């Protein structure tokens, strides 16, 4: 990302200017099941284009969608069910067995409470559902309601950072390549909404940024990855012990981290890192006529070189469920993306150019109106 003026991001005023321009065009990628719950990216067929994996919570399916090429991105994508599990909450691409091919890891909540491995049968058989093999990680069974997984490279192998909610809500490390697989808790939690792996202390390794939604330890914080001189992860709490924080994103501005977390408290929380390392909290109110905060992503949506915010909502009956905001002269200016006619419960966001026109589109999913895995086409180009 290009260097962005910090003065445009750290705003003393968080007033909102509202404008209702034409909504973005909606394209359906996959609407074959029920309850699409999250979108994660990876190039599973190694063609240089972003593919998607999603857990369908009510439908009990883990699905993969293959990017069909820029000229066909507005059509439904070739898709396959790679596993059938109960109450999936998350699915992510990762090379589980070290064979150079991306597999899929899924997390289940409800009464299922397992992490599952879905093994890639090979590029030529990706779209053959009966060729995929699913394996439950026994070490995770009935231990917690697993909500999120982030693959993490450690000592030349992949481990998985897991986040969960009660019972036994936690952030844990899963080593699935050991036999049997091993899991180790590194933080007690209330309800982990998201995990991001970033080098927050600029020491060359990835740390664990988290949003914890409920309980007496809720808020935004990060776990410092231990080095050769330290033992165990060190928990750095940042802010939000009185908030219900949802999904988060982060971006570097002038080599300092800026964290954005949507909340159910009526605003997006912006945590800006000062020169001395301290965090400055700024509240960016949700515009009127939008749903309750859910997802957030930071990126340059209008091509002006400055950082914008894309947001999604839940409880958006008759309200705008997806929108973006730009900072203009100290004000956050609202732009409608989805309109208010359809879409009730959206999820996390990926900002990515899906149609090859060099602007960022908004990829997400919606699970109450059963819009499924969808993307909104940026009208910039």
Description:
With 381 residues, the chain is an all-beta fold. It has a 5-stranded mixed sheet, with no helix packed on it. It has a 4-stranded antiparallel sheet with strand order 2-29-28-27, with no helix packed on it. The protein is built from no helices and 29 strands. The protein starts with 15 loop residues before the first strand and ends with a strand. It has a domain of 157 residues: TolB, C-terminal domain (Neuraminidase, 6 Propeller).
- Distance N to C terminus: 19 Å
Biggest sheet strand order reads 1-26-25-24-23
Number of strands: 29
- Average pLDDT for all residues: 93
- Gross morphology is globular
> What's the CATH topology label of the domain at 33-189?
Neuraminidase
CATH architecture of the domain at 33-189: 6 Propeller
| CATH homologous superfamily grouping of the domain at 33-189 | TolB, C-terminal domain
**Largest sheet descriptor:** 5 strands, mixed
Structural class: mainly beta
CATH hierarchy class name of the domain at 33-189: Mainly Beta
SSE layout:
Blueprint lengths: L15 E3 L6 E6 L5 E7 L8 E6 L4 E5 L13 E6 L3 E7 L8 E6 L6 E5 L13 E4 L8 E10 L2 E9 L4 E6 L6 E7 L3 E7 L8 E6 L6 E6 L9 E6 L5 E9 L2 E8 L3 E7 L5 E7 L6 E8 L8 E7 L7 E7 L2 E6 L13 E3 L8 E6 L5 E6 L4
Parallel strand pairs: 1-26
Antiparallel strand pairs: 2-29, 3-4, 4-5, 5-6, 7-8, 8-9, 9-10, 11-12, 12-13, 13-14, 15-16, 16-17, 17-18, 19-20, 20-21, 21-22, 23-24, 24-25, 25-26, 27-28, 28-29
């Amino acid at each position: 990302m290009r260097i962005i003026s910090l003065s445009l991001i750290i705003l003393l005023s968080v007033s909102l200017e509202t404008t209702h321009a034409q909504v973005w065009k909606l394209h359906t990628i996959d609407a074959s099941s029920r309850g699409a719950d999250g979108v994660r990216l990876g190039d599973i067929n190694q063609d240089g284009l972003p593919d998607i994996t999603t857990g369908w919570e009510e439908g009990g399916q883990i699905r993969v969608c293959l990017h069909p090429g820029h000229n066909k991105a507005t059509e439904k994508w070739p898709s396959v069910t790679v596993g059938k599990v109960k109450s999936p909450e998350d699915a992510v691409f990762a090379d589980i067995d070290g064979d150079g091919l991306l597999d899929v890891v899924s997390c289940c909540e409800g009464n299922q409470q397992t992490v599952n491995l879905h093994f890639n049968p090979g590029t030529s058989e990706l779209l053959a559902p009966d060729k995929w093999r699913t394996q439950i990680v026994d070490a995770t069974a009935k231990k917690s309601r697993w909500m999120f997984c982030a693959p993490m490279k450690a000592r030349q192998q992949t481990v998985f950072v897991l986040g969960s909610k009660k019972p036994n809500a936690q952030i844990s490390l899963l080593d699935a390549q050991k036999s049997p697989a091993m899991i180790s808790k590194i933080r007690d939690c209330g309800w982990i909404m998201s995990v991001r792996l970033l080098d927050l202390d600029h020491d060359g390794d990835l740390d664990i940024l988290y949003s914890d939604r409920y309980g007496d330890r809720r808020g935004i914080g990060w776990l410092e990855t231990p080095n050769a001189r330290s033992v165990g992860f060190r928990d750095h709490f940042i802010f939000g012990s009185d908030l219900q924080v949802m999904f988060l994103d982060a971006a570097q501005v002038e080599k300092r981290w800026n964290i954005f977390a949507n909340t159910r408290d009526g605003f997006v929380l912006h945590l800006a890192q000062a020169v001395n390392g301290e965090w400055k909290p700024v509240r960016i109110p949700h515009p009127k006529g939008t749903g309750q905060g859910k997802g957030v992503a930071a990126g340059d949506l209008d091509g002006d070189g400055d950082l914008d915010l894309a947001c999604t909502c839940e409880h958006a009956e008759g309200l705008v469920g997806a929108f973006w905001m730009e900072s203009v002269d100290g004000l956050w200016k609202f732009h409608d993306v989805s309109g208010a006619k359809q879409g009730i419960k959206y999820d996390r966001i990926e900002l990515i150019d899906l149609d090859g026109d060099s602007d960022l589109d908004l990829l997400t999913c919606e699970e109450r109106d059963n819009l499924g895995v969808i993307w909104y086409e940026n009208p910039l180009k």
